[in-house]
Amino acid sequence: MNNSQPDDKLPITNTVFPPPPSYYKQFTHENVQRYETLTGKPFNPREKGKCRAKMDEKVDVERIEVDDHGDRREVELTTEEREELKDLEERFKKPRADWVQEEGRWMCFNNVYTTEPTIPTAESIGVEPFVDPAEEPQTSLPPLLHSFLHTLLLLLDTLTMTPRKSSALEAAGWDSEGNQYIQHLANLSMNMMVASNQLRTAQSEATLVLLMEKELAERRKQTEKLHAKCAEIAKGIKTLRELGEN
Q1: CA 195 to CA 67: how far, in whole Å?
Q2: Of 96, 129, 150, which one is at a domain's C-terminal end?
Q3: Which of 46, 79, 111, 245 sits in a 20 to 30 Å window from 227, CA-based?
Q4: What pTM was estimated for this model as a whole?
Q5: In this structure, is residue 128 part of a structural domain?
Q6: Could you tell me if 159 and 189 lie in one domain?
Q7: What is the pLDDT of residues 194-224, one digit of tens each?
Q8: Region Disordered: what ranges (predicted)?
């Protein structure tokens, strides 16, 4: 008799932490125990290498049984048991993820990730580019910051003035007072983020240099302590020799 359970589809939710897939429901105590009975082998999900190797093999035609005297003997599986074992092995197999490599991306918690890390550009995130991609970030970032501060001052100046009527704002195509400055600040911020991402290589190199310098300083400190300890021991030995000679 097949003790395996049918797939229970979970409802699709839009919560921050969605429920796990129904795959975990296959690993019931009854299914695991039945698998061990049919194969005569222990099933331990923690031993991934051994477990997966066993599952990737062809379905066994014999199982190992232990009699009352402790003797092991091979028992041929029936056709029904072979089908049941094959079904259990299919249920226990690791889900295929090769489609991630084929598509080069996957989605997790409503965020899209790529198998090959890429630095986003202004065009890729749908923002009007304000800087030349070939320009060095050290050159493009200061003008962006200057424009950001200037726009922020204009926004503050607008908010301190008497607000206009909603009809005047609608005629200008703005949702609220200072909306044009807010949109410009958002575009400037995203362009600054894109330009800052180009400094990741320099940041990694600088971080590596700092780590190496810190490690070198620590080793020098340990070496100085070692030399001081050796000098202290040598001084003690010299004192003991002088006492012995006297």
Answers
A1: 72
A2: 96
A3: 245
A4: 0.43
A5: no
A6: yes
A7: 888 878 888 888 899 999 999 999 999 999 9
A8: 1-21
Place of tokens 């049984």: 65
DSSP-assigned letters across all residues of 201-216: HHHHHHHHHHHHHHHH
Positive or negative, the CA dihedral 140, 145, 148, 154 is negative
Residues recorded for the chain = 246
Q: State the residue range of the domain holding 147.
A: 137-197
* pLDDT, tens only, 57-109: 444 445 555 555 555 556 677 888 888 888 888 877 776 777 888 888 877 77
- Amino acid occupying residue 119: I
Residue 219, both tokens:
């080793």
Tokens of 231: 């000098």
The structure tokens listed for 140 are 């493009």
Q: Token pair for residue 69? A: 């005297």
Residue 195 burial (CB count, 10 A): 21
Same domain, 69 and 91: yes
Is residue 57, in this structure, part of any structural domain at all? Answer: yes
Half-sphere exposure of 181 (CA within 13 A, CB side): 16
